[in-house]
Structure formats: C-alpha cells, structure tokens
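To close the section, here is one more complete example, presented without commentary so you can practise reading it yourself. The ligand is manganese (II) ion.
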Amino acid sequence: MIMSIKSPEYAQRRTQLMQQMQPNSVAILYAAPVVKRSYCLDYPYRPNSDFYYLSGFNEPEAVLVMIPGRKNGEFVVFCREKNQAQELWHGKRLGLQGVMNELGANEALPIGDIDQILPNLIAGKDALYYAFADGSYINAQINKWLTKVKKNAYAPTKFIDLEDLLHEMRVRKSSTEIALMQKAADISADAHIKAMQNCQVGMYEYQLEAILEHHFKQNGAKFCAYNSIVAAGNNACTLHYTDNNCVIDDNDLILIDAGCELDCYASDVTRTFPANGKFTSEQLALYDVVLQANLAAIDCIKPGISFDLPHQISVEIITEGLLELGILQGDKEQLIQQGAYKDFYMHRVSHWLGLDVHDVGSYREQQNHQNWRNLEVAMVLTIEPGIYIAADNQQVAPKWRGIGIRIEDDIVVTPNGCQVLTNKVPKDPKQIELLMQGK
Ligand code: GLY
Ligand code: MN
Ligand code: MN
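Output:
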C-alpha cells in the first residue's frame, strides 16, 4: 500500500504551502542527491522527505519550483529527460511528459537547462524560499542565479527558510499518512513477534536482524526506517548499538529497536525480551518499572497536554522504581530535581514520527520558544522509556549490571486521547514468555 503519485494530497499540500508564502515570492526545493557508496556504486536512492511530501516524486536530479499566482501555472518541475541508454542501465524515468501527467506539474523542463530558465522564474520576485539546511551546493546555485537576474531585473532580497513552513505542516498527519503509518507499524509489529518466536540462545544478533528485515521486505517495506538495533545483554546499554555481531547468551535480555519504512513513512518499535524465554527476577523487576513508565506515559496522551508531560511522568515512575529496588537512594523529589535518573535513563521519552524517524517540527511553542508545545489531534509521536545499567557500572549491586531495557510504541493523538499504532506486538512480560514458548 503506497500513496499514488497522482494523489490529490500532494497538490493540496503545495496549495497549503503557497497560501502561507509571502506575496510575490517563489519557493525552490531540490531533490536529494545520489550518494556514492564506493567506486562506481551508489547507496539505494531515498528521496528528500520534504521533496517527497510535496510531490511523491522519487527521482534524483530534480527541482520543484512553486510560484503562487503565476499565470502560466504555479508548479514547475525541472527533471531528467527520457534517455533510452540511461534507462537501460539505471531504470525508468518519468521524463518531462510523465512529470506533467503523473505529478501534475504545469510545466516540466530539462534539469540541464535550469541555469538558463530558473533566473527568469525568480526575476522580479521579492522573496525566495529555499531549504537553508540543504547547504553549500544550493547556496552556490542561488547566488549564481541571483547574479544573472541582477544584470537585467529586480532580484529577490528576502530569503526565507522553506523548512519553517513545511516542517510545521508535517507535524500534523493526514488520514492517509496515519493509515500508512499504521500499516508500517503492523509490519514492524509482526517482525518483532517473529524475532521473539525464533530467537535462540547461541544465535548471532545479526541473525535476528535478518528475521526482522526479511519480514519487512516480504511485506512491501523495502527499507528500514533506521539501522536496526539488535542488542543482547550489555550491548543494550549502548543506546544506538548497530554492530549486531555478538552471540546471544543464555541469560541475556535482548533489546530490539527496529522499524520498517513504508512509502517513506517510518515506524519505530522497541521490545526487550529474554533470550531463553524466561525473565530472571532482576530483569523482570527492572522491566516492570519501564513497562509502568511506558503505560502511564501513553495513558496521559490527549489533545491539550504539554509535549513534556509524558516525559515527566516517565521520569517520576522510573525514579520511584529505581528507589524501590535500592538502585537509587534518597528523597524522590530531590532525586528528580538533581536528575539522578539520568545515570540510568539518559534520553527523553518521545520524538515526532513521520516521513523521518526523528521527524521534523518544533517541540516548542511558536510564540514563546521557552515553552513546550501542546499536543494536537493527528500528531504522531513515540513513547520510549528505558533503563540501562552497564556491566561496568560500579555504583550499583552486580546483580543489576549488564541490563538494558527500552519499550517503544508509536502513538497518534486522537480527539479523545490516543491510538497506539504498535500495540499488536506484546509488551506484557507474561505474554512475551508465552509467545516465546509457542503458546
Ligand atoms: N530508533 C531510534 C529511536 O528510537 O529514537
Ligand atoms: Mn524512537
Ligand atoms: Mn527506536
């Protein structure tokens, strides 16, 4: 299931963007470049998320130009022309006619002609929007075009970061996007279930990784949303461990943080389970604390709450749990004030999720950047508390060491609360044990 390149949603997004642009302005957005992997070989191509959000187009060497109010059409695309020899080696291109028919461009022009044509499109405009983060190549291009324009005409003097408008649009998801993200989450959930069912002591971490990624591809998700983390035992205490090359030991807990990307939309799922199918009492005690933090943080999610509230709830529960287990000592409120939990829980509980796994969009209010923003319907975020006690942590009793736990779900804010996209994969420890025993 993917969104058709002809979906009217792309045109709606461009219209929504253009309605917010200043009068007499133009926006330019480059496709992501092809990235070289090694001599003669490239990494698989993945479009720039903003570019894809506005067009559904997944070819490199293209530029979108949006010119609100332009009589000859507001949407101009520079792209690769059809080329039999190139297509024989590298695959089909839409070409100019295809870009007009499929993408709905009012005009499609050869990318090789951009330096001649683009200056005419920006001449006489007051403001130019582009993605500042796209860097030096785009800056150099723009400078070149401005120099050309200035010879004969008025050139824009106002430069505005396109990302500010676009990224705010991307924070609230459409029903099509949410349906896609549910599908991505379902594929990932099933992959985690398969990993639990097929895990065996003595396997390599990368063999579990293969089970997950085989399931992603078998179900239409060509890419992972990020490099899969399959971390046994102490490896789970490395937050973004991706070596995945160790043998799984009998008493290891295994932390898997893996999610597929479907039609460029990410899922982001973490489960932690015992390699041999049975939690030890120490593992279970810590797991329960993380699970309570996960459940309570999800439980508070509804429109109007602060983005920071789930984090504060998770901090309170994890601090309380570590106190009860004797891993922290002292007064709960003081420990929270001092941030004592950060030795064991060193990340925040949540981030936006969408076309990017750490999706774009501000976490702060637009009016006052000091304040966390409030959640709104159709925002999508993760909830992912964790506790990590490294094997070399001398501050705690040896029985707790070498345990890393994270439980991560993907959540959509709904009018009355929230919907958990990833609840198909169990997180209750009894259910995990039963699943692993084949029951
Ligand atoms: N998988 C990366 C993260 O959970 O943020
Ligand atoms: Mn995450
Ligand atoms: Mn994750």
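Once you have examined the tokens, check your reading against these statements. The pocket of manganese (II) ion (ligand 2) is lined by residues 268, 351, 382, 384, 408 (CB under 6 Å). The chain has a mean pLDDT of 97.
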